[in-house]
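Why run this: before we spend reagent on co-expression, it is cheaper to look at a predicted model of the complex and decide which construct boundaries make sense. The entries below are exactly what would go into the expression plan.
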Amino acid sequence: MPETRLVTKRLHDRPDDSWTVDAALATGAYDGLRTALTMTPAAIGQEQVKASGLRGRGGAGFPAATKWSFLPEGSHPRYLVVNDDEGEPSTFKDRMLTERDPHQLLEGIVIAAFSIEAHLAFIYIRGEFALGYERLEQAVKDAYAQGFLGKDILGSGFDLDVVIHRGAGAYICGEETALLESLEGERGMPRIRPPFPAIEGLYAKPTVVNNVETLSTLPHIIAMGGDKYAELGVGKSTGTRIFSLSGHVNRPGNYEVELGTTFRELIEAPDLGGGVPNGRTVKFLIPGGASSQWLTGEHLDVALDMDVVQQEYGVMLGSGAVMVFDDTTNPALVAWRLAKFFAHESCGKCTPCREGTGWIEKVLYRISHGLGRPQDLDLLVDVGDGISPGVVNAPFTQTTICPLGPSAVSAVASLDKYFRDEVIAMCHAPEQVSA
Amino acid sequence: MSDNDRVKVTIDGTEIDAGMGELVIKVAQDHGVFIPRFCWHERMKPVGMCRMCLVEIEGQKGLPPACTTPVADGMVVNTRKEHVAKAQDAVLEFLLINHPLDCPVCDRGGECPLQDQTLAFGPGESRFVEEKRHFEKPIPISDLVLLDRERCVQCARCTRFADEIAGDPLIDFGERSGEMQVITYPDEPFTSYFSGNTVQICPVGALTATPYRFKARPWDLATSETSCTTCSVGCRGALQSSSNRLVRLLGVDSEPVNQGWLCDKGRFGYEFVHSPNRVTRPLVRRGGELVEASWPEALDAAAEGLRRARDDHGSGSVAVLGGARGTNEDAYVWARFAKGVLRTDHVDCQLGDGLPPEVVLGLPRATIPDCDRAAAIVLLAPDLKEELPVLFLRVRRAAEELGVPLVDVAARDHGLTRHAKIVIRHAPGGVGGLRDEVVDKVRDLVSGREGPVVVVLGRPSLAEPPDATVHAAAALAALPDVRFLSALRRGNVHGALDLGLAPGFLPGRVGLEAGSAHFAAAWGGVPDAPGLDAAGILESAVQGQVHALVLLGADPVADFPDRVVARRAIEHVEFVVAVGAFLTDSSRAADVVLPTAVWGEKEGTTTNLEGRVLRVSQQVTPGGTPMADWRLAGELALRLGADFDLATVSEVQNEIAGVAPAHAGADAALLRRARDGVVLPMHEHGDELVLDAGSLAITDASWEPIRPGTIASEEGHASNVGTGVVEATGTGSTTTVKPGLTETEAPVAPDEEVAAITSAAAAAVGDAPKLYRWAPVSDAPPAVKPDAYSLRLVVGRSLYDAGRVNSESPSLAPLAPGQALLVHPKDFDRVGVVPGARVRVTSGRGSVQLPLHPDRSLPEGVAFLSFNQRGEGAGDLIDIGAPVTDIRVETLRS
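The model came back. Tokens follow.
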């Protein structure tokens, strides 16, 4: 089963120079923009993008056109902020798009900015993306030189400036309000909502924050038409998505497939994941990045449909990262490693996350290192309940400000749901022992 | 608020009428429902960090925090439903897992919001068996505040206070996740004048104050409500003692006065009360030495000396300096003694460092809350941050939060300059020449804006007379609805001025001539003619015309701007009576020293810079035999044949209310009930009067705003200012008793009673002499050109100085910055010196040696010196008779 390459077409077609302006222009870059500039801003957002059914590719899967529509009418200036702070463990698609097709991203940015009537866009790029930053910076220069950025873009009368801002290494800054804080020079911590960024975002002005893949998709929606784009995919999960496939698969990597493809196809198709190595079987998989709850080998035929996975299986496609674990894997050890990540990355702002993630990590460490007590799994679930009341299913409930805390509970909930007996069986420490 | 701005909300089943936009947590609290919280503080913006106040709002997803959620019409809030309680329980368990639980050795133990709320809302025991996190502890974050990072619950109250309220963003969070901690910046301690507030509002024992640390347990504290008299803002406070020693002053949240805040000097300055250097027994000079004497001996000697001067040389040969540090009762009885018995009008509570009394008493007055609603605030004053710190906070807030434009008229930049909308710079002593420009700019600025023009009027520099400032004020007085807020600094200077300790005035803001008949009738006589001010008295003394001088807590050698004149004057006076708590450079030369009780040791009232009369309380008994100043005056009067028949503070208060026109109606009974004090004259400020309808129990949590009037003030063992909270019903249970915040507040008297009281005051004033009004005319002071080699000196004050409160408080004394001459770096070349060098500074008056430091905030050609720092300095350079002080600077040859 082949990929359906829209967003990843150029970088595959021109593997040696796809990021250069020459290669980009030779392969149709900015054609979508030319078309877009002949439309009205409203037609782009509320006709094309709306018709396309495009949903955010960062994690939450919120319909892009709806997000844009929240901007208060007549309120200016307003800003477009590009979330290129991809930090979800095992997710590496935005990095690829930034490094290997920056012009596609810039084209998407101009289309989005034109549609929402923003004249200043900020790209918040993860600090570790050194190559991506270099190429993006060059691409911005070239785009200015070619008239795709700056004053009177392509004679349309539309002006747009782009500023690149490098992050400083905090996972939380991928959360949109923490990103805005960081962009303003403050400590990266999420804001209390409301107000939402569309009303009071960057510098208290109406702001749209969009993910790199979301924006990179826009040129294709304009080029092919929203309706046509919506024919791809399944149900309300239209179009294609890039899945970052990792773990126990023969061919880890980014694969762009139509939504609706099954996990089995993604993992096993010879030109996609190529199956589990050494003839092993899938024990469990994390379907949407480290924040998501897990599925097991039983669920391989579930379709990559944002709504179905959430409504029927309580998990999410999230950032589009699929981590596969074979039958040799100790799930408690995986849970501990994930918990360690979240405990380390908690920004510290709100109590349940700051304290709870660290607690979960410590208990999971004990369990996965032979010091677990029989009651520890129940304890973990109850601690998780203090962060994410009711735990268990996406979408998250939370006592926290942002979803980072609940993300750390996903692994605990999954252990309890699928591996309870296995986990309890590995807990040998007496009940009364203290660590 | 119109009906449209009201909404109906239901909280735990009770329907409540609330203002639109008010926060759920506040509305609930105002109606007796306490929603637990750590990070939320009424005086700061909500952040929703601690998650303790999660509630259910029907129809809304999840559990929103009550502190960030505004009420909306029809909203139904549940604060104690099972799943809400479970979330609250979880948050408390989270907060406790890494908390050291060292309550038995923690200053906060016993008054700790974490303890109390755990008892009321939290789990009985922890399920956390892992190693807790550890930090080095405590670490100093400033000279006065220590941080225990293990106890911290990361609520950001301290960091937000420092940033939002104090404007000193010197503490912040560092690290993240479980390692998140409050930090200072490298090599930059939390040197805020307001740092003590962070200790008070800390909901755990993470921040402790070095002066209080380990000094007492909360349940051993006796407390009374009082006013701070360190400066003239009069911040309300809860004064606490243990075993007859003052150990703590907490800010009380008086909306019109200090909104709960204190400066560090005020908060920790109580230490001076217990200084070993106090004079505790009377002293008389025998054989050239001051030796201890009995009270009758000392009083007889003092009375005899005063009588001899009066009888031999006439009333005009006796002078009284000082009185601005005592209570109103002290000031009044001394005024009656000086003017009614000694019949001298050479009486001045200021020491040549303030403004003419006719300006302070005779201009329309502003209140502190007027700043909040002003069309503009004009600063024609010294650096408020240094001299009146809590007024600085109020003006800063008005500018930053409430959008009131500031007009900064000064010779140099200061604490409020960066908040100013218009900055007008003038040469030192040259503001008079710019007065039309200032008036025009203010007029333009306020056109179309509502509210009064508030002019903060003080003495910007001691290196020049106040003439230029007065000249500018006279012009500003012509603006419509202009009101003046006096920025005189000394604790009760306004009370002393109001009560007649000023030349040409009698108690109650009446001029000597206008009030002469009235007071002659009341007192039996008054001086014939207006007397001299401090400068006049001292100069007259130098010329041998003052034969007896009373220093009423005054130390002219330290505080009079011209030290040469002050020193000579004291030397020349034949007979000096020093009334005070310490031996000073001035009082060491006295013939009789009468020790007095100080703040914290005596009851009474003080009047702040608004003219607001506020009660001060006695919390400890002084060591030795000091007396209240007013009793001394009565004793001396008796020895000179006048029996005042005043036995108690209340009797003094009632006499003041009866004879002093501005104080009409403000009798002892009313002063006891007026929650935020009484603004004088009362009949013009009825809207400021909030009366408690009855007596009170206690108390608020000290970490929450302490409401005025909520502290029982019975003699002796007053109630705790603890959380006054909860009873446990057993391990692991939640309790039914909530931390009671509002229930203990006394009911407020109805408006009709207030109206009756104010109209009675108006009637009383109607019969009395007219209150003094200044006709704002003044002559332009001469412009003096500096020569090319000179720098023109500005002399201001630093909060921490060599004054007694400061130097006798062990925690504060080391904070005085010391003496250094500051000049703009560009002037270094011109005068041929290098930074850091010791230089000789020479004025027309004298010459001193000082270190020299660069200061880019100064204009070129201007030098700055801080007044009353240890050692030689500004006082040796200023000539009280000169219009400006120009100095020359030369490098010392080594």
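DSSP finds 25 helices and 35 strands in chain B. The interface with chain A takes residues 46-52, 54, 61-63, 65, 68, 83, 86-87, 89-91, 93-95, 97-98, 127-131, 133, 153-154, 172-173, 175-180 of chain B (CB under 8 Å). Bring this page to Monday's planning discussion.
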